[in-house]
Design goal:
The chain is α/β, with parallel strands linked by helices and about 270 residues long. The chain is about 50% helix and about 15% strand. The chain has a five-stranded parallel sheet with strand order 2-3-4-1-5, with helices on both faces.
């Protein structure tokens, strides 16, 4: 395998890295700071970014940092459906047997959220990942779940994560009630050119290799091909290293990197 050829102890450039392989880019730091604020002040947060920019990793890190004795995370990943389907998923995340009708479901969820605060002293954090894929009718349900005691109590934290399309969706007049409640905004960008060099070094070092494996021309080409989007960087770097191992080359130069761009279908 190509990992053993270079002496890696584990696979670098994974899309599901462990804590030691997470890279603190400026975009990541900004998102983390704002999500920490959201956790401490409740309300509604919006996290957007291009495909592969690291939104899901940021969400995982955010929810993993929450004390389970104080917070109950309700993670909802997109599943094609209606507003009723969304409420049913939220009810299921709350360990409820979902009611049949929408109005009953909404009351059921609200009552469960209040019980969490009163009996377990837990604050629920509802995360809607890939939120840009939910229909307008589903998003319109969310402000109803945030109304407690005529808005005098913040018993639910809501985090919407998705592609930039989500911002355009929320700019529509029908989503004014939800948009007004958003107190934290964060948009994740790709790595800068300087960050890319540090990212390549950090990923290799975390996997057990300290010597440089990409020369300057390869790094520049890699950045131009990926625009610093972490998922694209990971895919192209792994493809290049695999091809280098196949050719018995100890490092990656520009010619090999260009071949990898073609094979990786970037």
């Amino acid at each position: 395998m190509w990992e053993s050829f270079f002496g890696f102890k584990k696979t670098p450039f994974s899309d599901s890295p462990d804590a030691k392989q997470l890279f603190a880019s400026e975009s990541w730091k900004q998102a983390r700071t704002r999500l920490e604020f959201l956790a401490g002040h409740s309300g509604v947060g919006l996290l957007t970014g291009e495909v592969g920019a690291g939104k899901s990793a940021a969400v995982r890190a955010f929810t993993a940092s929450l004390n389970p004795n104080q917070y109950k995370v309700l993670y909802i990943h997109f599943a094609a459906g209606s507003s009723l389907d969304l409420l049913r998923q939220i009810a299921a995340a709350l360990d409820l047997e979902p009611a049949h009708f929408r109005s009953d479901l909404a009351r059921q969820i609200s009552a469960s959220i209040q019980r969490l605060h009163q009996s377990k002293k837990q604050h629920p954090v509802l995360v809607l990942d890939e939120a840009h894929l939910w229909p307008h009718a589903a998003l319109e349900q969310l402000p109803l779940l945030l109304n407690f005691d005529m808005d005098s109590s913040r018993l639910l934290t809501l985090l919407l994560a998705g592609l930039p399309l989500l911002r355009r969706t929320l700019s529509l007049q029908i989503h004014e009630p939800l948009r007004q409640r958003i107190s934290v905004h964060s948009h994740m960008e790709g790595l800068s050119r300087e960050e890319l060099d540090d990212y390549l070094t950090q990923q290799c070092k975390a996997a057990g290799v300290t010597q440089p494996l990409f020369d300057e021309t390869a790094r520049q080409t890699l950045y131009q091909a990926t625009k610093g989007i972490p998922r694209k960087v990971n895919k192209l770097a792994m493809t290049a290293l695999r091809m280098a191992a196949e050719r018995r080359q100890q490092s990656v130069g520009e010619p090999l990197l260009l071949d990898a761009v073609t094979e990786a279908l970037l």
